[in-house]
Amino acid sequence: MPLTDSGVRSLTATDKMQKKSVGNCLYVVVEPSKKGGGKSFYGEIRFPPGGGGQKVRVCIGPYGTAPGQWTLKAAKDEWTRIRAWSLETGRDPRELNGRGRKQNQDQGPSKTLQDAIDGFLSTKTSLKEFTLTNYRRQLENQVRECIPGATPLRELEWDNGGREKVVALREYIEDRGSYDQAFRVQKVLAQALDYAILQGWMRRNQNPATKQKGEESKHDPKHHPHIQWEQVPELLEAIHLNRCSGHVQSVMALKLLLMTFLRAGALARLKWKWISRKENLLVIPGTTPGLKRTKKTEDLPHHVPLTKEMNALLKQAKQMNGHLPYVFGPVREQSRYPHLDPESPNNLLKGLGYREVLRAHGWRSLPLTAGQEVLKAPHDIIQRQMGHLIGDKVRKAYDKSLMLEERRDFLEQWCKLLVKNGLKI
After folding, report:
1. Model-wide pTM > 0.85
2. Burial code of 354-365, b = ≥16 C-beta within 10 A, e = fewer?
3. Class for domain 5-89, per CATH?
4. How far apart are the C-alpha atoms of 1 and 21, rounded to whole Å?
5. pLDDT tens-digit profile of 37-64?
């Protein structure tokens, strides 16, 4: 049975797209909650009429009572008008859509780029805080630096010169040498303008930031600098001698990073309450920045079985930072972080002479490589300990095994191997 207006109002977003009939081949669609949960109307009709025609979809617009939106009655009236026009003229109903479409009464002032940015960001509450902050900076700082927020959205449509503005934006960022950032900013802008199209503020197929065929980033990706296993003793000696007089917090953090091969972002945010002495285990929540987890779908905690060497270092850190919630405190009083700066391990490596030789993230290749070649450990166990979620979507959804005993055995062998090669706690 077709939905009434109260039925349309009562529809709530789920994790899947919903399509409900409101009568006469007119439908209301509810987007998945992860895409904002917006409701919109569209009609379906065969064109050309008759048995040989193909079913075509005609967008009416977003559901609602605000300017630029459609009530159920208005959508039905518009759909009746479009069908009648198509039958009378023999033309594709989609030609009327977007050109001869009547606008709702009291349309009000046209929407702007700032409206699209604000609306888009308001729908991204499911994103992690770091990602949302990054999106906001890209849109409000970099996009608006070239395209004012007050720019009417109709001026950004492809046919109205919007593509030229987007190309100028990308080239402006590329001129700074930030090729990858230019590509990322354009991608986020495209999402914001897709939101505007979904709301009926821009015409369909007019997004000027959409990636085109053959359009590729000029960014030349490079792997993080890393060393070979034969160079590890020299590195461990350099850390011990600490000729650059690196802060003791940074030195302890770097040593723990070598033993756990955590990403620097997660390492810097470690908290004492995450350590279970009863189980001799460190459990890092999946929402922690640096674990590279997808919020709600893959934000599983990361487990680090603690070894004798790790506990010895944590005991030293406890004597220094036991009054803090974090394992490693900030090095400077004016630090923007309440914990160790995530860049501290890399800064220490630079001070030790490893600027172009090794980065903290590059160290992660050592346990995966030497772990297999030297310790003969299974790569599956090492990857689990690196924080990787193993397998395809099906395996990630159903395989809940942690393999903690095997991971503990590997870490114990790994720490002993580091000590044998010169690591001093």
Report:
1. no
2. beeebbbbbbbb
3. alpha beta
4. 8
5. 788 888 888 888 766 677 888 888 888 8
